[in-house]
Structures are given as structure tokens and as C-alpha cells.
Automatic annotation (TrEMBL):
It comes from Micromonospora parva. The keyword Nucleotide-binding applies. Residues 2-214 form the Glutamine amidotransferase type-2 domain. This is asparagine synthase (glutamine-hydrolyzing). The keyword Amino-acid biosynthesis applies. It is an enzyme of class 6 (ligase). Keywords: Amino-acid biosynthesis, Asparagine biosynthesis, ATP-binding, Glutamine amidotransferase, Nucleotide-binding. Pfam families: Asn_synthase (PF00733), GATase_7 (PF13537). It catalyses: L-aspartate + L-glutamine + ATP + H2O = L-asparagine + L-glutamate + AMP + diphosphate + H(+). PANTHER family: ASPARAGINE SYNTHETASE (PTHR43284:SF1), ASPARAGINE SYNTHETASE (GLUTAMINE-HYDROLYZING) (PTHR43284). Its EC number is 6.3.5.4. InterPro entries: Asn_synth_AEB, Asn_synthase, ASN_synthetase/amidase, AsnB_N, Asparagine_synth, GATase_2_dom, Ntn_hydrolases_N, Rossmann-like_a/b/a_fold. Pathway: Amino-acid biosynthesis; L-asparagine biosynthesis; L-asparagine from L-aspartate (L-Gln route): step 1/1.
Amino acid sequence: MCGIGGELRLDGSPPDLAAVERMLPALASRGPDGEGRWQHGPVALVHRRLRIIDLSDAGAQPMVDPELGLATVFNGCIYNYRELRDELTAAGYAFRSTSDTEVILKAYHRWGTACVERFYGMFAFALVEMATHTVVLARDRLGIKPLYLAEGPGRVRFASTLPALLAAGDVDTDLDPVALHHYMSFHSVVPPPRTILTGVRKLPPATVRVITADGRSTDTTYWRPEFNRAAAPAMSADEWQERLMAALRTAVRRRMVADVPVGVLLSGGLDSSLIVALLAEQGQSGLATFSIGFEAAAGESGDEFHYSDLVARHFDTDHQQIRIGAQRFVPAVHQAIAAMSEPMVSHDCVAFHLLSEEVSQRITVVQSGQGADEILAGYDWYPPMANVARADAVEAYARVFFDRRHDALGGHLAPEWMLDRDASLEFVAAHFGAPGADTALDAALRLDSLVMLVDDPVKRVDNMTMAWGLEARVPFLDHEVVELAAACPPAMKLAQGGKGVLKAASRGIVPDEVIDRPKGYFPVPAIRHLAGPLLDDVRDALTARPARERGLFRKDYLEELLDAPNARRTTLGSNALWQLGLLELWLQRIGV
């Protein structure tokens, strides 16, 4: 896991090395173990390294292969790199390291851009053909690893984080009105290629972009699951459970590939508990597990230690309970905001940031349970979609998921920021209208798995863990697991209140008390119920000079929220004031 950055000049001039160099401090937390830089003709690359596979200097980046005429910087992990290395060695390639980075170079030389179809893993990389100065950018199937871009006159820059591009300079930091509409309506999700800033874009997941030296650019989408039954054989419920569990066993085993110890973030929910169970089943002993809890607020509990302790005892893990008191909380909120590449409303960010700080003091790699709810229908907005006609799916989805509908948004955003069209509903309609996805629920799960998941929970985990040089691996987002879940009949996923097929498959593997418990989450009550110093910070941000000059929100709506900070909730129960405050806190933090 690392931080990458670079620049390609398109006008024949050399890259701005000073600008590219300015990216490195902003990428440092992603790679605390070393840094590197490389320049050839119109291309410059920079890299910050987190040593996980091949801890020697042979694994350092940027990695250059003069014989093949290729160079690359890479963030992530190719879990099947050993198998690919053996195949490439048999084809005559010689290796100088034992790193997965070198496998990418050889694989590209052997198979071209189609090499990504052979990679099992999470990755974002930039690869340079030195003879032609062609740059190839690629991102993994589920967008687990980020890649941001900023285009300017005669050049393209790219980096693992948005702040790194800002550090390089010369970025249009005007707000994108369509992205703002998504932020306020589409549950704070801004789908690619947009970000909240007009001058920064992100490469979509499962995409390879080839940029030639004359500025021509082509994108190829190399993976898209169908979300229907066409590719799935007729199977009984028992057979679906067996197939799912077999795929998860493989996914968990793949994510143990490392030259350092691997632990688990254990929330006490079914998903992370199952990861622990499958690792124990595969012979992992003394597994390091970690859970976090906060002080209660407004009568709402701030921890789920009962369940995480139960799992830790059952599987005899080396468990650490992390309790966060009030004195650490407010500073941690601001540290979490500083770690965000984009504004992320979920209070889980603070939990993951604090958890990652503690965990990184002991280990470098963890597995985590993100993604199960999105691919297996675990959220409470999925059952209402079950009997909706396919033709009515878009409206039904917007009704249960959107924070605000377009008409209501007119009473919240200042007139100059309002669009004359419902951009969020148009986006959902286009996604739902694509071929595949037989039922309304299939369409909702496809959208959530391929868009919402990427730009909410997955991005959240990446940003917060990498702020502390911690690599998080997510077995539920193994692409073979996602493909299988997409083909599974909707009724099997909705059973037992959601994730029914997973719950049934987990019987006898995970304690029943965990399977049958009410659905939980990372509870952070002090954000759901704003008060004290954090409320003061939100108020200050929303009334500060930059916020007044920006004028995003209607004054009467803002006053209403500030007068009753915890009265207004979005459709899914988020604090409406926090959504506004977080955006301004983030914008002011990055200096916009």
C-alpha cells in the first residue's frame, strides 16, 4: 500500500518537477517507509512506500525496467502475484525482486492493458511506456484504491489523494454544482468522474485509461457484473450457501498474502466476525483483532464490545478493546476531516481514523468487513424494493435512499447553487436503465455495489486507514464474491431481515448470538447528537467568512438547523446539520 503521483506533459515541455515534488508530503502518511521519484522525457512519477510485500529495497518505487522500457508506480496489492510470477517466469521473464509491483510491469509487457483482467486484488497504478511516453492509468474493479486527476493547459496530473493534487498547485477549486447536488441529495455520494471540486476528477473503478503523448485519451471498462440470473446455474438454497462460503474462504485466504502480520478490524457484527472465523478455520492462531467504542450520548450507546468480546473469546484472538473518551473525540474529528480526500459525512470516519491510529502501532495490514451489506442486501432500504415493478424502480429507490428530493433542495440551497434539473435522479435513472439487473432490487444493488459502495464506505476505509499507514483489505469485495452475490436470487439475500444467504451459510461457523443480533454499525453518538465543542466548531464553520462568501445554503434553512441542531434528520437518519457543517469544515480545511 502506497501513495502515488505524477505528471504527463502534453505540449512537448518537460514536467514541472517542483509541482510533482510538492505532492510527496501530502502522500507521506500512505507510505511512511520511503519515497522515490523518477523522470523521463515529459513524464514524472513520485511514490511513497508502505513495505508489505518484498520489504527489501528491490521492491522500491518508482520501479523501472529498462529492458522492457517500462516504469510504474503502484498502490495496492495483487493477491495472486505469486501465481502470475510463476506464469511469467515460465514465459521467459526474469525477476529482480519478489514484489507484486514487478509483476505488473511484466504482465503489462506480456498482455498489454488486458493484464488487469488477470489481477486479483486492489490497485491503482500509473505505467509509462518510455519509448512512446504513453501513460496507462488503471483502477481495480471495485475502486478500493483511489486515483484522482487534475488536467491543466498542456498537462495531466494524477495522485492517490485529492490534497496531493492541490499541493501541486494550479487546480480549479471552484465547486462543481452537479457534485453539490449529488452531495446534498444522493446521500453525500459524488459518483465518478466528478468530485466536489471542478478541477479534480477521479478515474472510475474497473477502468483503464491510456493517454498518449499528444493528449489523446481512451477509457476501457474491463469488468461489470450483470446482476441477473442468466449466468447462474439453477441451485438450491443450500447450494448457494455452499458456493458463497467457498468463495469467501478463498477471498479471506487471498488477503493473507503479505510479508508482515495481518489482523482484523472486529466490529462484532456478522461480517467481520465471519472473517475471524474463517481465518481461525484456516489455522490462524493468535490473530490480532481490534474493536473501538465511544462514550454514550443522548442515551445512545457508543460501543458494541459485548459482541466483539464474544467473538474474540470464541476464537481465542489476541484482542484489543479501544475506548475513546470525550477528550480525544473533538480533535479526532478534525484529524479525520484532514484525512479526507473528499467530504465524507459518515461518522464512521472518526471511528476508523481513531481505530487505525491505534492498530497501526501494532500491525500494518488488516482485513475488514466492508461491502457485505451492499452486495447481499443488508440495509433496511432494500426490502421496500422487493415488490416494486422494474419500471417504478428509480422513484422507489430515490424515495428510500435520497437525503433530499430536488424540490426540497430548493429550500435548502441558495438559489445561485440550484440546478434547473434533478441531476441525482437523472444519474440514478441512467444507471437503472443500463442493460442487466432483472428486478428493481437487482438495479438498486448494482448501483449501490458499483457506485455508492465505492464512494462512501470503501473510500472512507481507505482514507482513514491510510492516514496512519495501515493497509485495509476487504474480502467481501473480492470480485468473484461480488459476481456470485450479484447472481444470487434477491429473495435469498432479503431473507432473515437481509443478508439471509450469508446468515444461513454462517450457522455453525459464527456463534448464533452474532448472527441473530440486531444490525449494528460503528456508533459515534457525539456526531449524531451534536453538542458542546463540536457543535461550536460546526457553527463557527458555517458562519465563517469563507462560508458566507461561498453562500451555499439558504440563510433561513441554516438558522433553522443551528437553532435546533439535532432536530432535522435525513431520510436515512443522518444529522442534517452535520452534513452541511462537514462540507464547510472540509472546504475550509483544504483552503478553499
